[in-house]
Specification:
18 helices; binds arginine; elongated; mainly alpha; two-stranded antiparallel sheet; 468 residues
Amino acid sequence: MTEQTKPTPTANQMWGGRFNAGPDAIMQAINASIGFDRRLYAQDIAGSRAHAAMLAAVSILTNKDAEAIGEGLLTVLSEIETGKFQFRVDLEDIHMNVEARLKEIIGEPAGRLHTARSRNDQVAVDFRLWVRDQCDAAITGIEALMRAFLAQAAAGADWVMPGFTHLQVAQPVTWGHHMMAYVEMLARDRSRFVDARARMNECPLGAAALAGTSFPIDRDMTAKTLGFDRPTANSLDSVSDRDFALEFLSASSICAMHLSRFAEELVIWSSAQFRFVILSDRWTTGSSIMPQKKNPDAAELLRAKLGRILGATVALFTIMKGLPLTYSKDMQEDKEQTFDAADTLMLALAAMTGMVGDMTAQTATLSAAAGSGFSTATDLADWLVRTLGLPFRDAHHVTGTLVAMAEAKGCDLPDLTLADMQLVHAGITAEVFGVLGVQNSVQSRISYGGTAPAQVRVQIARWAKELL
Ligand code: ARG
């Protein structure tokens, strides 16, 4: 026998009709969601006001009652917004807290508000409205970050830097090109939020508990009032669906993964070994013991934030995956996860926007690094193909031999003499030195989407037109 904790004194005033005793105190603690779902107060009140106005329009409520409800809800709203509202755990959640207070303010008509409605469609509409706002906020935040990357790209469309594969120097690229890669990623992120928003924009209000209602409600009216495109078409699905939150979380996870990748680059680039960028004092911290340190804490934290967001995503998938139709109380666990993920994403976007705006590319270091690691070896191989007509595979082999030779001599490719080169392939002429320079290399990559400054400027112009 487990020890019983004390029951709370009275049965719930909203649904306690058939109960003789109140819930165990621990039951109340595990059951109540008011600690977190109070965040839905504005959506809850907007949903209830739309519902009451509709009930009056179809003569289920008198105009007088509907007006009293509408006005009373505005009073509740202002009480919450000015911090005067007393949230009560015994009233479980935001829906019952608002309604109970409405009853205190307007009396009997408050009890008519819940006609043709259930907390199941109520929470579904509240949460959808909240997630829809977060999609808008994410889109705005992403666009600000895109503009920050765009400004960096425009400043350095022709600054050269090493491009990496396997984090080994691969070919020279331009700073602008690298920045614009993130603009493309963020554009996909933005479109995921736009798509998710469009798909979630159907109104579940009026599905009632699960089966619809016998009252002659006008679901088109409430949908329209709340800015939805249409009402949802299946009442069972309406109260059991959390796809909108899952899509928001999935899109957030992908976006946070992108932020994490750039954060990782910043950590590497700002290290003493790379010195590609200087992060501003605003986004770094010092060490309490090592006076020389300037740690990229904001970048490190951004790299870690995906963990939380992805964690929330996995949590909600796990909550939902085993639930039979329709509503189960498990679904109350959707909110804290989504709230935390949304807060984290907005903070991460804002921090990254600040960091990108403030960072200073070290152009001399970037340029020197761009020429290291035999970065123009591909240009040499391409020259052998173009000028001497070698098959690419042979050109690759010749170039590889030249790289090995330079490595043995401890020099870079342009430092080899013509005589050295001709030992490897007799056909090589002095003209080859023209393609071994880093500038030449990036200028030559003019294929669509390539790293040549001319191409990068085409992309910058395209995005500037849309974002600026
Ligand atoms: N607090 C609940 C939630 O967040 C509201 C819906 C309650 N519905 C019910 N049938 N108990 O999911």
